[in-house]
Amino acid sequence: QSNGIGFIRLHIPWPILSREAELQKIKVAVKKVRRLIVICASSPCCYQVPCAVYFITNSYYLEIFTLIVCLGFLQLLHEEWANYGVMHKYQPVDLIRKYFGEQIGLYFAWLGVYTQLLIPPSVLGFIVFLYGIFTVDTNVPSQETCNDNLNITMCPLCDGVCDYWRLSSVCSLARTSYLFDNGATVLFAIFMSLWAACFLEHWKRRQMCLKHTWDLTIVQMCLLCVQIFVTFSAVFGVAVYRICMLSVWSMNPDPEAKASVRMTVTTTGIILNMLVVLVLEEVYGAIAVWLTELELPKTKEEFEERLIFKSFFLKSMNAFAPIFYVAFFKGRFAGRPGDYVYVFGDYRMEECAPPGCLIELCIQLSMIMLGKQLIQNNVFEQKGKKRAAEDEENEIEERRPKQQFDKDFTLEPFEGVTPEYMEMIIQYGFVSLFVASFPLAPAFALLNNVIEIRLDAAKFVTEIRRPDAVRCKDIGIWYNILCGISKFSVITNAFVISFTSEFVPRMVYQYMYSVNGTMNGYTEHSLSYFNVSNFPPGTAPNTTLISGVSMCRYKDYRDPPWAPDAYTFSKQYWSVLAAKLAFVIFFQNLAMFLSMLVAWMIPDVPRSLREQLKKENMMLMEFLLNQDQEPFAKSHGPRRSLPCFLPNIDIVPSHSTSCTKLGDRIPPSPSELKRNTPV
What we know:
It contains 23 helices and 11 strands. The protein has helices at about 15-25, 75-80, 95-100, 100-115, 120-135, 140-145, 170-180, 185-215, 220-250, 255-260, 260-295, 300-330, 360-380, 385-395, 405-410, 420-435, 440-465, 475-500, 505-515, 520-525, 570-600, 605-635, 670-675, and strands at about 35-40, 50-55, 65-70, 155, 165, 335, 340, 340-345, 345-350, 525-530, 550-555. The strands form 5 sheets. A 3-stranded antiparallel β-sheet has the order 1-2-3, with no helix packed on it. Strand 8 (about 340-345) and strand 9 (about 345-350) form a beta hairpin. The chain starts with 13 loop residues before the first helix and ends with a helix. The relative contact order is 0.14. Pfam families: Anoctamin.
């Protein structure tokens, strides 16, 4: 067209291709083998891409050079990869790499390994959940919580407008909490620590195989502190919302409405947290790019690494901050009846329910995890389809139909694989960091990834322009982030089991304070007494439906009001605290030791690859010996070949391999093959 966008078709001559191949140290064959080389045209995403396929026999002394033109390379990807009907099959990572390049090929290879290895923890997590379902009726603390005959009256949840309430009113919450807070959860948390180590080792082995097969050998902190402050301010704002709404909705005179105030406040607070996380994630992505551009990195690789670090730091803080608050801060600084901690002068800090904060942590984790995945997959990743539909409407309005290159140009531009990695790494954090509170997290992640792979495949094949192929030797800084998350998950799960769940207090009671070695009486033991006459003026319930209350109970280990040191921490409190700290140390050291043992037992390089590398080195030495002997044989006749002792060659694949004892002879380059080969 005279005006507007123009398209130019370029042809690259063979000498230039040969020179670039030499500069990139691309391997060529040195044995007389039959090879298949596929050279695809650089046409963007279309369903019929011409490919030049060369069958080369005797790569060094070329005798046959046959050219076959094939069509439908991308169509094959669409049928065998970007299709929900083939979710049960492995991904064609070699085809993905040949068409999209090594960078995208490595991403989908990593995603496939991660998804495949999610199957064992998904099955085991589901078994842990079923164990909780089948044993909940035999759980003594849940039975005692639901027993109306115990007639346990709890202290009000807020000052003035909140009434006393019966412990049996949280029966369903206690039973639900046991589904995720039972003895099997601890074993599952230890298993997940081992699983994380196995996953990293398995990916290292897989990456080494891909390196060999694909021939891959090659902050402004003050502003970040401001973003961290914004994140925690949002978490604090949601906490203040829950505190205020608890007081406001407790003014409702309807008894049924008052009974459901806690659940209503918790649910709306979790939904609000999820929306804040989604909004801030988009904002932080743009801020990370802006901050990285201000630093003016010297190279593209340096720019990407700094951008990835900032994006992950901000987005992970945004995603995990609400969960960290519920797991480790909620209810820890609330105080006690008669001496509560207040915010803004009149509002009490929120407390955990008598069964603990684990069930709320479980709900918070599942809502944010599932909400992010569903909304991102179904809203943010559907922009390309909408734009494609608009382009089709515009084409109908025009008289002349568009050419394929016009259609390809109107597709969404490729924005890199960083957003794809980021989504999966954040999900890996959800799966590993707090799996002790939500054993079903691996199962939900597995279900999401099975769909995510095909969704991303369809996006790459049909919705975005074909990206430039980028060679890279591994997944880069993402592996270091995975290692950091895996190590940090051991610490978080140890603290979740010790300080958030009721596992340690139950064990302490059973083996130190129980009369008969059972859990009978645990609920009574875990609740402290408060004399209602000790309420400060204006904090006792204004009206009450429960008459004759002289003592109310609250969740803590404190001396009763008739003790000499009333309301101080009891001996049981210090015993439980010591047991919690001891369990953290034991769990952390055990998990770290087992992880290191697994890493030591599993070699980074598979035996099959090690043997293949030795075989290739032997073939190279044989070729070099033959090349050295040919000139001597022509002038002096044949001689007996001397053995060549192989040097200590690193098992890591490299672009070039040499034997210094033989004169540093290298395999023939593609240009030499072309010059010395009859067609």
